[in-house]
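hey
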């Protein structure tokens, strides 16, 4: 696994928009403010041609232009790390125009983003054996003041911090809008992470505390199931290569309801993705309401039970802020108890 160098003081932060850009409010004002803040901190900025574009469908520009920008800015010597402008809907269409061979041969650099950016963070690991950060997109850094999770993500890029703890409360309803583009997360809901593990008969039971260790892999399930079985699916090879470490799957969902999440778990399992799994880290689903007797727990646990591994649910991961920054491809130890978790990551081979 290739681990990039950390961002140095006065280094240059690059920005690309392989999914949505920052062309509309409140994202434009938030992004502009983030740029001003980084520049005031002494960092240079290197903006790709699509950052303010609004020419595509579900992405900033055409798939060809987005794929070219992503390749060029990842392999460029003009920036030291790359942060995605935002999430979106159809980043998958850009993948046919991303030159992964060129990326694989280039010096590794940190790429950070989440949601639709799973199409890059996940494939950097599985196709290019290169670590990436599943964390906030650029506009989040425009909030005032920074939430601890946002500070954590930037400290990770700087190499100042690789151990993170859950944040205590989460945001059910955002206050950010066109008139208030810089408001911080509206964290009003108490955090209640739940831990599950197999009993003596293999059934999943709730635990007071638990630990799991392995190599982190995952992202947004909406994107992952879309990649399953395509030519971009090299998960089995990745899992076999790192079978000694085992895989810790971190998963969260944006538009999938509980039945879609259960179908996604079935699809990934039957594609062989969970071979060598050592545990599951499941984020709060954005659409996690119970449907026809199926809740968010039973959407996941029946598949997980087959592997007799720990499952930590409702963690700070994904679309219901805040989110812990996770290094895809790193080896991690995750400790849970008293409704909280602690993630310690090793950023080495």
């Amino acid at each position: 696994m290739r681990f990039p160098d950390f961002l140095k003081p006065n280094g240059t932060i690059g920005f690309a928009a392989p999914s949505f850009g920052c062309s509309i409010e409140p994202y434009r004002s938030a992004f502009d403010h983030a740029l001003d803040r980084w520049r005031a901190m002494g960092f240079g900025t290197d903006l790709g041609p699509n950052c303010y574009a609004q020419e595509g469908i579900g992405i900033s520009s055409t798939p060809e232009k987005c794929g070219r920008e992503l390749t060029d800015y990842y392999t460029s010597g003009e920036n030291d790390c790359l942060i995605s402008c935002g999430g979106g809907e159809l980043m998958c269409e850009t993948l046919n125009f991303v030159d992964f061979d060129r990326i694989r041969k280039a010096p590794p650099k940190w790429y950070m983003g989440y949601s639709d950016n799973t199409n890059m963070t996940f494939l950097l690991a599985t196709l290019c054996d290169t670590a990436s950060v599943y964390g906030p997109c650029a506009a989040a850094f425009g909030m005032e003041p920074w939430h601890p999770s946002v500070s954590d993500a930037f400290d990770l890029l700087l190499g100042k911090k690789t151990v993170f703890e859950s944040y205590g409360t989460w945001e059910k309803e955002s206050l950010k809008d066109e008139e208030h583009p810089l408001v911080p997360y509206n964290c009003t809901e108490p955090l209640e992470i739940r831990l599950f593990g197999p009993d003596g008969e293999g059934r999943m039971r709730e635990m007071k505390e638990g630990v799991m260790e392995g190599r982190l892999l995952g992202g947004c399930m909406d994107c992952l199931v879309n990649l399953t079985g395509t030519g971009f699916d090299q998960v089995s090879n990745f899992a076999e290569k790192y079978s000694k470490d085992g895989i810790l799957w971190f998963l969260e969902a944006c538009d999938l309801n509980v039945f879609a999440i259960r179908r996604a778990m079935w699809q990934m399992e039957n594609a062989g993705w969970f071979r060598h799994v050592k545990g599951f880290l499941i984020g709060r689903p954005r659409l996690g309401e119970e449907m026809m007797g199926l809740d968010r727990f039973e959407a996941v646990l029946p598949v997980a039970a087959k592997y007799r591994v720990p499952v930590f649910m409702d963690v700070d991961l994904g679309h219901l802020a805040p989110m812990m920054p996770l290094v895809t491809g790193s080896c991690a130890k995750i400790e849970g108890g008293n409704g909280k978790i602690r993630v310690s990551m090793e950023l080495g081979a």
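The longest strand covers residues 209-220. The chain has nine helices and 17 strands.
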